[in-house]
Specification:
Elements: H1 4-10, E1 22-27, H2 31-44, E2 51-54, E3 61-62, H3 64-81, E4 90-94, E5 100-101, E6 113-114, H4 115-119, H5 122-126, E7 137-138, E8 158-162, H6 167-178, E9 185-189, H7 196-206, E10 213-216, E11 228-233, E12 250-258, H8 288-293, E13 298-302, H9 314-323, H10 327-334, E14 337-338, E15 342-345
Parallel strand pairs: 1-2, 1-4, 3-5, 4-8, 9-10, 9-11, 11-12, 12-13
Antiparallel strand pairs: 5-6, 7-14, 13-15
Length: about 350
Amino acid sequence: MISKLALFLLLPALHAQTGQQVLLVENRSDPVSRQVGDYYRSRRAVPVKNVCLLQTGAGEEITWEIYVVQIERPIAACLEKNGLREQVLYIALTMGIPLKIQGLGTGMAAEYGSVDSELALLYAKMKGATFARAGPLPNPFFMKRDAPFRHPQFPMYLVTRLAAYALAGVKGMIDRSLAARNRGKFVIDANMPATGGNAWLQTAAMLLPGDRVVLDATPKVLYDQKDVIGYAAWGSNDADRKRRRLGFQWLPGAIAAEYVSTSARTLKRPPEDWTLGAIFAGSSQSLSGDLIEDGATGATGNTYEPFLGGTARPDYLLPAYYQGRNLAESYYLSIPFLSWQGVVLGDPLCSLGKP
């Protein structure tokens, strides 16, 4: 196991990335998508040539044909036309870009998945690689604690989504990302039987400064925590969790991850009286959108069933973010698979800075 000191020594000098490394993707047929893009571009100084306009429907679920024709190929064309293939490291999708792709198969042989996770493969595809649609593919950046993210060493893009339940929520997310500071508590709720997932939660706590960690491994659910900068738990898979809202006071820059199969199944706002255990958008599980709505700056989720081994690993996510990795790199360093179910909500450039 890597000690906190060893982790600090291994991590390379991190150079702050800028809007020059971001491709901002908007849906020209969706006014809110354009508004999100305008707001983000002005605050992160994204060059005009780094803005890619798509013409696609606003539905959340699409076919593979629509994904390829209306999303993947036009984004590749934007990158090639403006000479950005190597320069761009992050793709920021705006609210109003389709969320998930339909497909055949079941289990680990499923063809369905998130637009975002599939789009991460675009760099490799532009250099001639081909991939099967069925099942997940290994993420080459997973677990690379000591490696700077760059091309061509890592043949992928880090794709995040500037999205929430409404335009005001996305603006709040962006504003909080700009105000992020390295302070506050990492709240880790490991209330489940002994499993690999619990071990990852407990390892995350060990790799963070003890005076900044709140760790609980009892049936008690951690509600109403103050000054939260990072959070990891089982979400609605914790049988003792009854409240939809955690009641946290989230600090600017705070990120979250929960082991929940379909927490990014939709980015539509549920009814205010919706509760865990009741069906909404095809499932009764907790939603990543609620975390953003309540004040988190970043969150991850899954469009369909990823299985536990396909969820974000808090033992890589939280220490990387604490040590100064930006939001996109911290999340993708923790996600085992591409071409799978993952969605990362947040500004890719958000960073707490060095501790």
